[in-house]
Amino acid sequence: MSGKTNIRGNRLETEIERSREESNWKKVIELAEHLKARNQPGLETLANFLIGEGKLESYLEENPPTESNVQRARTGLADARKYLMMCIGEPAKKLEVSLDALLLLSKLEYAVGDYEGALAHLTSAGLDQLTEKTLPTRSLRIVAESYAIKGLCSERVPLPNNSKYQRAEKSEKMIRCFELAGDLTLLYLQEQDKLTSTPSTHSLQSLPAATTTGSTSPLPPSGLENKKIGVILETALQRAPILYMKAGQLDKAITRYRSMLAAVESTATQHLRLTLARQLAEVLLRGCSEHTYQPPTQGGKHFDERSKSSSNLKSGESPWKPQNYSGTNLFVPRNINEEIILLLLISEAMAVREAVLSQSPEFKNARVHAFDNATAVYDLLCISLARRKQFKILIEVFERAMKFSHEESHVWQQFGLALACGRKDARALLVLQEVHRLLPAQPHYCLLAARLCFQQLAKIDEGLEWVEKAIKCCEERMSFLSARCYLYQGMGLMLSANHDQRHSNSHTLRAKALESLTRAQQLDSSDHLVEFYLALLYAQNFHLVEAMHHVKLALYLRSDHPHSLHLLILLISAQKDYEEALELCEAALKEYPDDLHLMYVRASLEEAVFGGEVALLTARRMLTLWQKLYKEQLSSDTTDSQSYHHTNHDTYSIFNMSDKDAASVHAESVAASRVEQALSEVASSLSSYQPKPGPHQAWLLQIQIWLLTAQLYIKTDQLSEAAHCIQEASSIFPMSHHIMFMKGLLHEKKSEFHEAQTCYQNALAINPYHLKSLRHLVSTLQWVVFIFPDDSALDLFLSNQA
């Protein structure tokens, strides 16, 4: 009989330990009652401990130990206190339950708000004298919570003598407690995964898949990980780096974050890793510079000394350290940018994985919580990636966010801005339409949509409609953006006037533009852009005196505005005062030595003042500068969006002030640019011509420089050099009407009037409104009439022209 009783006792103890490890406290209490009913010596004390532990833990699972639950806990934990107090005497010490009872009593005192009592129990238990040795899983959690409670209570208990030395000593002890609690927590959770045979299904290796697929269920996560880890341990894990930062030890805070993230992930830490990775990225963004940054491999400590398995410890290594990731193929960031983006992309992958797709009302809290976590990561990604102009990655990130961003205006706003910055203009306009639907009272996004229509999409009428929406929003709410709305309206009307080929319509549109710009000036007399566009409008109407007045006002309001400087130089040159204009241009180039706008004007002015040879030197310097500015972009896989943001100004309008149809692809006639593009594609399919790699905008700039150089060579009678320049431009974009026009000039200079006429006709076939080609075609026809007075020949040429 005694043998059977021992077997039953061993089975009962095994069942109790398994239930404790599984946190099945109801069953623990039931088994403890059976144990107590045996009436064997010492079992009663053990049973009391188990009942007290079960009552304490089951209550705290229902009512977490927070300040809001303190009053309720004082009555709800009375039974647990009674049972645990029975387990701290000499009999309990012999059964080795007194230590655990004291540690659990400290947890109870913390839950009821008696922080000094909790510290007293921890002192009685000798927590600081515990030996770091291998512990059972349940003991790991108890000890981890005890260190966490000691740190939390120490923060709340004031010092008797608040001296600087005591504060520093207290801070050091608290950090030590939180670090031990964090390491033991991570180790405990890793051991829990081993015991339950449910290893983490979301290890680091699975993150790329999570990044692309996202959540596979519309339902929120089960929340079991929060029950496993608890409020106390979760707070302890995040507290140590915060205390380091408060103490001004940012490097130690970063090291602590890295050590926790290097631990092998367990099921219960999946959500916590999202928080830790985001916090570390935020610390690196806000508090660390490239000069003070130390990479994770500094000294080899972070991944070498702490990356050994806890089950295969070497001599001198603490058994309380969690198992870390190890291997030869681990990616280690080499600089601060790599680490920040890596952390944020990992965080984004986890945030997408935890997203709640269901719109059911019962999941509202879980959906809001997951969305807030994801939004915090997206905000940091915007800051980090936008600084480095990585808009392609940012767009991909927000595309993944769309699945759980239903009716969430913040993500739609950021998505629209990312698309606009990444030069995905058509998509950006569609997203901004959705933003306007979600935020109909915000004029900012109406103005951004109008800017896209004006600047990129050539949808001027639609842009004016967006401006009207913005004006309506501002008038209803007296917004400070009213002046900017009227400015945009004036700009749109000016563009409409430039595109309208009927003089009466153009005149009417310019009059309306003047009214809008004047209204903007009345609302905000300190806006330099209003004065600039007023000057530009007067200049287009050939009112040079008024234009000079307003451009000087624009420079008075903002002296470093390069477009105003550019316009002032052109206005002075329009008054035939080339030397003064050249002097001002050279002064502006001292401020902006890399401005190709001003160098183009300088070359034109030098040709008028000193002759073509001097202007050619400037043109050659422009080619050298172009190589300097864009060589790196052309050698890498750089998109048009990065080229667009490379310069300080809008590259598409670089020469538009001096010649309104000068930029080939962004010409006065949108149809002309589309014809050019289509012809170039046909040429690339029918011949050996291949488009140049790299950003398109950069190559358009080089075309303009080659054509300027060719024109200067023609004027200095260096025709062979001019032909080479035209050939270089043709190799980039052969079907440009500007290149056709320049070929006509070269033939006309050689008195080859038939060929010149053909070139001008080709240019006009692409862009019928190219004024220079029309003028030179008329001049060429006059020479043809002079050379071929025969009526039949003249009729032939006129019929061809018709």
UniProtKB/TrEMBL annotation:
Residues 198-222, 291-321 are annotated as: Disordered. Transmembrane segments: none annotated. SMART domains: TPR. Pfam families: TTC7_N. It comes from the Eukaryota. Keywords: TPR repeat. TPR repeats lie at residues 737-770. Residues 1-396 form the Tetratricopeptide repeat protein 7 N-terminal domain. Residues 206-217, 309-318 have a biased composition (Low complexity). GO terms for cellular component: plasma membrane. InterPro entries: Endocytosis_PI4K-reg_protein (IPR051722), TPR-like_helical_dom_sf (IPR011990), TPR_rpt (IPR019734), TTC7_N (IPR045819). GO terms for biological process: phosphatidylinositol phosphate biosynthetic process; protein localization to plasma membrane. SUPFAM superfamilies: TPR-like. Belongs to the YPP1 family. PANTHER family: TETRATRICOPEPTIDE REPEAT DOMAIN 7, ISOFORM A, TETRATRICOPEPTIDE REPEAT PROTEIN, TPR. Involved in endocytosis. This is Tetratricopeptide repeat protein 7 N-terminal domain-containing protein.
